[in-house]
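Quick illustration for those who missed Monday's session on complexes.
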Amino acid sequence: MSTLTIIHKLKLKKSVTREKIIKFYDEATEDYEFWSKDFNMHFGYYIPFKTSILKRDSMLNEMNQQVYNRLQVKKQNSLVADLGCGIGGVIQYGLRKYPLIHIIGVTLSPFQVNEGNKRLKHKNGLILEENYCHTSFKTNSIDGAYAIESFCHSGHSKQALQEAYRILKPNSRLVIADAFLKKDEEQLCIGSNYCYEQLCKGWSLKGLGSIQKTKNTLEQIGFKNITIEDISHRVAPSVLHVPFAITGFILKKIFRKETLKPQSWKNLKGSLFALLSGLHIKSFGYYLITAEK
Ligand SMILES: C[S@@+](CC[C@H](N)C(=O)[O-])C[C@H]1O[C@@H](n2cnc3c(N)ncnc32)[C@H](O)[C@@H]1O
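Prediction with S-adenosylmethionine bound:
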């Protein structure tokens, strides 16, 4: 790799600051209602005859179900942590299905904390403004933790994985649903690399971890029984919704004579490059990782 490329990559990494993530989600969270009426801020999981390709939320909610299935927590009095919880769409799903568990979410965005907590009133859920790399949860206190498309903001960093390990009770599980690289960043072809950089810029991501390195890191930290499932083909139908969702969103804005906020543009750009990255199937994959403490 040339020196210029290395400098460019370092610049890109440095440029994803906590402030940028907060600005992005404080401004763009409302736009996600167009993606999901249930405020799911992630892609979906398609199962023929159970979910419908035409009904996006049926696939997005199925992703939530797949994550909860793998957590295997007791359905009464368990304490679950949602690490990077958005406006609480996944928490709402969990509490609809399992009303007797308790779910605490963390997010960097004050907007998501305020709006999310309004929606969680009188339910067993709460959202805190905290960094998932340094939470206030006690060591060995959580019965199950999950991170859906949130650890990518910190490049699937060791700190985030280690913090999840710290807070989990022994034998309890961490479930991650996210996109990962199938090879090292340096090995990406020009096309993949371009899509990857634009995706990271658009969505304020520090980067995607390589799936093999992330598995190694989980093992180093002490996680056991690590299962890695490549679910790219299940996720693809919801990724294909992106161009339609983007077009619909822009048309709605034009029709209402509303201007697009800068963070909304960034979000649309990120979504478009997520689709384009998804087409590079040798470089990117979507995985469900289950790991036990
Ligand atoms: C794409 S959204 C996903 C939200 C939710 N998991 C879902 O699937 O609907 C990413 C979330 O991660 C949160 N996030 C990013 N970096 C974070 C950090 N260091 N600590 C806590 N939350 C973080 C953002 O604030 C945002 O809520």
